[in-house]
Request: fold
Amino acid sequence: MDRREIEEIGIAIGIVVVLGLGYVGSASAGEVAGVLPALGEALSGSSGVVLLGLGFVLSAVLTVAVAAAVVRYWAGSGVWFLGSLKRGIDRITPDSILWRAAVWLMVVVVVLLVFIGAIPVLVGDLGDTEGGAVGFADSFSDQELNDEWETIVAGDAVGASGTCSNAFANLPGGDADGDGLPDDWERAGETPDGAPLPGADPAHKDVYVQLNYGSTVDPLSSSEQTQLREAWAAMPVENPDGTTGITLHLDDESEGAGSLAERAVVRGGDGVDGFYNASVLGSRQCVYHQVVVGQVEDGDTATYVETPGFAAVVDGTTRSDYEGEVSFRAALATHALLHNVVGRVDGNDHTADGWLAGGPDNEFLSNATAATIEERGLTKVRQPASA
Reply:
């Protein structure tokens, strides 16, 4: 076996390695974006495509060259093995060039399959998530996304954490509209602790929500926030001022709101209140509800929420194939917030239809949920357990 033949084998091995590394790179793109979001942004767009292309070409050339050099100067047992392999293939293949090419192609395919199969064992998990930043987006079919929401919201309703477990009782001024906020606070436009209640109306139901975003997701757009407000304004619940609907106040710009400057990953209901604390909400704690838009990595489940309560986490994956009037994320947030402010309806976490069932055909408040709100009102604001 001469040096040229050994070099050719080295080049073939280099090509296999390049293909394997390409497979790893494409499979782990979500994890890399999740761990290094700044890198993901830098490599987005047309300039990013050019940079990635040049990087791949240079890496491929370098890998093939290194593999060829290593195999070429491989001494002793390595050369003996390759020589034996070549002699064995020569014995079982005819002299035809096409036959030899076919046999060598099969050898390369087998080696490639073995190499790819061993990658998870050799390199392990490239990130610290189960599904990565894009894991949820690929975890279920379009039919589940649009018709089978029981898989998306399965087990999403969890008990309140106890942080806001002591309800106010016999507050002066009452709560005429049943939104859980004392009328005196609404007239003052703030709580006694200074939490702002802009636009509060003691004769019309108000719900205040602080939005927080993990570092690997995009914030809710102005369009999505408008969709949320309009969905709640359209809910058929009566108010003392003679109108229907609930005013949803969203805040992602004040201190503590908006970006969390870290990843927000939840893998079960135990983590739903991980960011619901005084350091994030300040005086808003136990008055404002919180929706954290992050990564929910627990099978097909896309949200976890206190039922009733104040904390909720929804998956921030954008899904253009969701067929509703609102975005997929706006639908998840509405579903979650209703769990917060209504709790169980007729003893069940989910209703047969409406927002608490979920899906593009259920973008409305069910009669059962509306009746529960009329009867009990919305979740009352609470004092911290330490108070």
About this structure: The mean pLDDT is 80. DSSP finds twelve helices and ten strands in the chain. The first strand starts at residue 157 and ends at 158.
